[in-house]
Amino acid sequence: MLQERSAVRNGGGDAPLLSVHGLCVRFRGITALDGVSFDVRRGQIAGLIGPNGAGKTTLFNCLSRLYGYSEGRITFDGRPMEDVPRHKVAGMGIGRTFQNLALFASMTVLDNIKVGRHPRTRKGFLASALRLPGVAEEEADSTRRASELVRFLGLEEVAQQRVAELPFGTRKRVELGRALASEPSLLLLDEPAAGLNHEEVGSLGSLIKAIRDQYHLTVLLVEHHMGLVMSVSDHVVALNFGRKISEGTPAQVRKDPEVVQAYLGTES
Ligand SMILES: Nc1ncnc2c1ncn2[C@@H]1O[C@H](COP(=O)(O)OP(=O)(O)OP(=O)(O)O)[C@@H](O)[C@H]1O
C-alpha cells in the first residue's frame, strides 16, 4: 500500500531522504548533541548506536519535533524541518515507535493500529460524529489497511484482543503496526529489541528487513543490541557524548578504534 506514496520530491532517488547537518542540542550545561551530521539514503536501514547518554534519543526527539535545537538543520524529503509543527510530523511521512510503548491498553489490537491511520484521514471528529458523506468510506479504508498490517505482522489471532492482555513482545509488534498505519516513508525505531527474548530479537531482524522491502520505506534504528543493529543495518552512525565518532558500514564501524573505546566497559 505504501508503494503508491513513493513520490520523490527532491529530484530523484539519489538525494538523501533525511539529512542532519551540524545539529546541536543543549540542556542547561549539558551538550546532548554537538554538531552531529549524517545522511540517510532512501531505502536504507540505518543504525544509530552509542553508549548510554550518547544523544540517540535526543536526536530522535529532534526528528519528531519534540525537542528544538539551538544550531543545525534537519531536512526531510527536501523539506526543512524547523518550521514543521509537531502534529504535522506523522502526516509528512515520519513514523515512530517509542522505548516505552505508546499504545491504548484498553483498546483492541486492530483499533490501536487504526489509531495510527489518523494522519492519513481527512474527515475530522465532527464529520464522523455527524456521519457526513465520505466518513463511512474512510472508515472502511482504515479498517482494510489496518487489517492488512495485522496480517503482515502475524497478529490475526489477537486482532480483537485488548492490548493489555498481550505479552510484551506482541505489544511491540502492535506498536510497529500503529507506526506503519500512517504510511511513513521514514520509520524511526527506538530500541525495538529492548525487553524481547533471544528468539524474538532473531525474528525482529527479519521483520525490519521485510518491512523495508514490502513497504519501500527507509528505517532509522536506535538500538543497544549490537547483534541486531549490525545484522540489519546498511549504514551505521555511532555517537558518544553527543558527537559523531564513526560512520560507515557495520563492518567498518564495528572495528573503528573510537567505537571500541567508547563501548569498553559499557557494552559487550
Ligand atoms: N529533557 C532533558 N533534559 C535534560 N537533559 C537531558 C534531557 N534529555 C536528554 N538529556 C541529557 O542529554 C544527554 C543525552 O541523552 P539521550 O537520552 O539522548 O542519550 P541516549 O543515547 O538516548 O541514551 P540511552 O541509550 O541511555 O537512552 C544525557 O546526558 C541526558 O541526561
UniProtKB/TrEMBL annotation:
Keywords, ordered alphabetically: ATP-binding, Cell membrane, Membrane, Nucleotide-binding, Transport
One GO cellular component term: plasma membrane
Transmembrane residue ranges: none
Alphabetical list of InterPro entries matching this protein: AAA+_ATPase, ABC_AA/LPS_Transport, ABC_transporter-like_ATP-bd, BCA_ABC_TP_C, P-loop_NTPase
Domain ABC transporter positions: 18-266
SMART domains in the cross-refs: AAA
Pfam families reported for this sequence: ABC_tran, BCA_ABC_TP_C
GO terms for MF: ATP binding; ATP hydrolysis activity
Family annotation (SUPFAM superfamilies): P-loop containing nucleoside triphosphate hydrolases
The name this protein goes by in its record: ABC transporter ATP-binding protein
